[in-house]
């Protein structure tokens, strides 16, 4: 079998088209565009790229887009003060604080300070709690898990009843929320991780395999059940000497070429889950704006 490649860019483009329409409709109704503020602390190069892309996409969606860059030496109190200012700004509907934050700043305290109604990352305990209580329709849901589910549903349809989903990874950003979303689609869900015994065997029982463990190409083709749908959330930069000295390339958590011989469908890296994350951030911003004005 050669797996179907799930085109994240194409699916993201459909989501973004809907966002643009919703953004224009919101502006017609309220007289202002949805507003998204992104906060970056420090100069982590990967974070700078992500934040730049988010700003670009927000502008393309017709949003008011703000980027706040703070030096790595900033105090936690100053970050909290900025979050407070954005909470109070009626023209800002979404606040995203790019993670990871520098050492010395308590991430939990910062995330807790964001108004849950503006928490477009879905990381505030109120939104986490709503999702875990089965009330995802009332919550802002984390972008990467929500985007992964749309890609999965583009293959399976919305019901996963009778299917075994294995999530490899237990992060708050991806593993735990995606497991909740799978459960809500009636999948039987196993959360595995880097310390799970017999990980390969457990993966081989997965009809749906979500890889979010953050280890380059850890999941081999021989771990994939024939016909499984594989969602690869990993983004790992590895050396690529074949491309020249000092060059690198992006790979997922799955050995894609191997898995393609076994799976029925798989997301590529890059071009799979990545574009969906940004698209869902824009979708969450329009949702937050509509809920706030509703
Ligand atoms: N860093 C890596 N992924 C994310 C994300 O989804 N949201 C935020 N805020 N930071 C991140």
UniProtKB/TrEMBL annotation:
Does the keyword field hold Amino-acid biosynthesis?
A: yes
Q: Report which reactions are catalysed by this protein.
A: (6R)-5,10-methylene-5,6,7,8-tetrahydrofolate + NADP(+) = (6R)-5,10-methenyltetrahydrofolate + NADPH; (6R)-5,10-methenyltetrahydrofolate + H2O = (6R)-10-formyltetrahydrofolate + H(+)
Pathway field:
One-carbon metabolism; tetrahydrofolate interconversion
Cellular component (GO) terms are:
cytosol
Tell me which residues make up the Tetrahydrofolate dehydrogenase/cyclohydrolase NAD(P)-binding domain.
Answer: 142-290
Q: Name one Pfam family in it.
A: THF_DHG_CYH
Which processes are annotated in GO (biological process)?
L-histidine biosynthetic process; methionine biosynthetic process; purine nucleotide biosynthetic process; tetrahydrofolate interconversion
GO terms (molecular function) for this protein are: methenyltetrahydrofolate cyclohydrolase activity; methylenetetrahydrofolate dehydrogenase (NADP+) activity
The family database entries (InterPro entries) matched by this protein are listed as: Aminoacid_DH-like_N_sf, NAD(P)-bd_dom_sf, THF_DH/CycHdrlase, THF_DH/CycHdrlase_cat_dom, THF_DH/CycHdrlase_CS, THF_DH/CycHdrlase_NAD-bd_dom
SUPFAM superfamilies given in the database record: Aminoacid dehydrogenase-like, N-terminal domain (SSF53223), NAD(P)-binding Rossmann-fold domains (SSF51735)
Tetrahydrofolate dehydrogenase/cyclohydrolase catalytic domain span: 6-121
Domain of life of the organism encoding this protein: Bacteria
Q: Which residues bind NADP(+)?
A: 169-171, 235
Q: What keywords does the record list, in alphabetical order?
A: Amino-acid biosynthesis, Histidine biosynthesis, Hydrolase, Methionine biosynthesis, Multifunctional enzyme, NADP, One-carbon metabolism, Oxidoreductase, Purine biosynthesis
Q: What does this protein do?
A: Catalyzes the oxidation of 5,10-methylenetetrahydrofolate to 5,10-methenyltetrahydrofolate and then the hydrolysis of 5,10-methenyltetrahydrofolate to 10-formyltetrahydrofolate.
User: What family does this chain come from, according to its entry?
Assistant: Belongs to the tetrahydrofolate dehydrogenase/cyclohydrolase family.
Q: Which NCBIfam families does this one have?
A: PRK14186.1 (NF010783), PRK14188.1 (NF010785)
| Complex and partners | Homodimer.
Q: What protein does this entry describe?
A: Bifunctional protein FolD
Give the organism, scientific name: Phreatobacter aquaticus
């Amino acid at each position: 079998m050669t797996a179907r490649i799930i085109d994240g860019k194409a699916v993201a483009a459909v989501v973004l088209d809907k966002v643009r329409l919703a953004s224009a409709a919101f502006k017609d109704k309220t007289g202002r565009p949805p507003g998204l503020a992104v906060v970056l602390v420090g100069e982590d190069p990967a974070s700078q790229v992500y934040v730049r892309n988010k700003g670009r996409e927000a502008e393309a969606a017709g949003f008011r887009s703000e980027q706040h860059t703070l030096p790595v030496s900033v105090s936690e109190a100053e970050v909290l003060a900025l979050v407070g200012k954005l909470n109070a700004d009626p023209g800002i509907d979404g606040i995203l604080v790019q993670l990871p934050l520098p050492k010395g700043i308590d991430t939990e305290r910062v995330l807790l300070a964001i108004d849950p109604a503006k928490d477009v990352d879905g990381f505030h305990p109120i939104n986490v709690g709503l999702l875990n209580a089965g009330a995802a329709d009332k919550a802002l849901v984390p972008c990467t898990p929500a985007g992964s589910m749309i890609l999965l549903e583009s293959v399976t349809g919305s019901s996963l009843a009778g299917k075994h989903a294995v999530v490899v990874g237990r992060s708050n950003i991806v593993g735990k929320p995606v497991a909740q979303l799978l459960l809500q689609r009636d999948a039987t869900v196993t959360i595995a991780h880097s310390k799970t015994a017999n990980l390969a065997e457990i993966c081989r029982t997965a009809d749906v395999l979500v890889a979010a463990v953050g280890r380059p190409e850890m999941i081999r083709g021989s771990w994939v059940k024939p016909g499984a749908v594989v969602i690869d959330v990993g983004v790992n930069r590895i050396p690529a000497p074949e491309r020249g000295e000092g060059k690198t390339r992006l790979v997922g958590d799955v050995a894609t070429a191997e898995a393609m011989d076994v799976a029925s469908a798989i997301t590529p890296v890059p071009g799979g889950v990545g574009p969906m994350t940004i698209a869902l951030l824009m979708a969450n911003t329009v949702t937050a704006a509509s809920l706030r004005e509703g």
